[in-house]
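Dear H.,

Thanks for agreeing to be a second pair of eyes. The structure we're designing against is below in token form, covering all 338 positions.
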């Protein structure tokens, strides 16, 4: 797959590390677990959205935009990383924040919300759950146009065909690392939300003939709702790259449940996963995404779905700033859902 035809900005120096987790593997007592450190991508601090934004921001700049307009939840990693890219490019940035849990937006909240203000978001509109976000962002772009400015909208999570190219690039980076480090992976575990990461990685694996199954862990939906999104995303990436083949529906696989009771609301398995990685490997997961994704990996290993001795690769997609918005829950000082 030839990505060199697409404009791209670079926000990370070199590949992110591919590492074995010896202490965590021992504590888990099942599969051998490797990690792709996409929490160490560039921008402040980086995460999976960094890869998508390399292509999205390049597209915005190519079209003459001066302002990035995007949307997300009150503690959105995606909004924070988009703002960080805008700052680096000398652009402005505006958000539409969806209050998925009513009353949950607080101007003085810590975590990502603090970083929005520290890095100087230009404007931020809070709307209730269920609002048409595309329309809300378009209103911001229209307002900018009235002032002679040019906004570029980026969908939630940066998940469209252009953003998905970032995870095709990750697939190619992994292929090179497997080769250079002599690593043989049996299955990959990745988070599945707005689906640019899961869908882009799947398109990249299929398109580069990397014959390793990908297991998604839903962070906000069960498979009946999640899998079609991932399939659409992978198809859109194929089309943009000119791959003249359908993405096989059976290549899309995800697990639900681990995100419950609700997107971004803590549960006991997430707390265990965050503590376990912090205490065995000094790796920081986050409460909203990677903690729940790793909870899925742990639970599926204990149940024998991931087998003893199998080589698993966990994609660490970032998110650590929101740890600070959930400190009492993560230390066991406040109750969480089972
Ligand atoms: C956005 C995000 C995800 C989910 O990725 P999608 O591409 O939206 O599916 C996973 N982990 C972290 C830390 C994220 O910020």
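And this is the sequence the design step returned. I haven't edited it by hand at all.
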């Amino acid at each position: 797959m030839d990505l060199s035809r697409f404009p791209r900005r670079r926000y990370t120096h070199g590949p992110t590390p591919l590492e074995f987790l010896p202490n965590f593997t021992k504590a888990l007592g099942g599969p051998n677990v490797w990690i792709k450190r996409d929490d160490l991508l560039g921008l402040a601090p980086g995460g999976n959205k960094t890869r998508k934004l390399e292509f999205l921001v390049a597209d915005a700049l190519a079209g003459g935009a001066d302002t990035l307009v995007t949307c997300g939840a009150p503690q959105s990693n995606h909004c924070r990383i988009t703002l960080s890219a805008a700052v680096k490019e000398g652009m402005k940035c505006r958000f539409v924040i969806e209050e998925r849990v009513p009353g949950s937006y607080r101007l003085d909240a810590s975590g990502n919300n603090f970083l929005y203000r520290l890095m100087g978001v230009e404007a931020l509109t809070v709307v209730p759950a269920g609002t048409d976000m595309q329309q809300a962002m378009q209103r911001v772009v229209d307002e900018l146009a009235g002032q002679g400015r040019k906004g570029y909208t980026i969908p939630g999570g940066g998940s469209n065909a252009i953003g998905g190219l970032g995870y095709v690039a990750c697939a190619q980076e992994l292929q090179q690392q497997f080769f250079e480090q002599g690593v043989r992976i049996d299955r990959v575990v990745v988070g599945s939300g707005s689906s640019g990461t899961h869908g882009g990685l799947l398109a990249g694996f299929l398109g580069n003939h990397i014959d390793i199954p990908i297991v998604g862990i839903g962070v906000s939906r069960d498979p009946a709702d999640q899998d079609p999104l991932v399939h659409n995303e992978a198809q859109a990436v194929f089309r943009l790259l000119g791959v003249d083949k359908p993405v096989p529906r059976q290549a899309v696989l995800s697990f639900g449940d681990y995100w419950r009771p609700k997107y971004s609301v803590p549960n006991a398995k997430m707390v265990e996963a965050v503590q376990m990685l912090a205490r065995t490997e000094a790796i920081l997961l986050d409460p909203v995404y990677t903690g729940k994704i790793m909870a899925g990996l742990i639970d599926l290993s204990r149940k024998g779905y991931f087998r003893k001795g199998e080589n698993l690769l966990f994609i660490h997609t970032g998110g650590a700033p929101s740890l600070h918005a959930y400190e009492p829950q993560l230390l066991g000082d406040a109750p969480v859902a089972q």
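Two observations from my side: Strands lie at 18-20, 32-37, 67-72, 92-99, 123-128, 151-154, 187-192, 214-218, 254-255, 311-316. Residues 47-48, 77-78, 157, 159, 191-198, 219, 286, 289-290, 317-319 surround pyridoxal-5'-phosphate (CB under 6 Å).

Warmly,
E.
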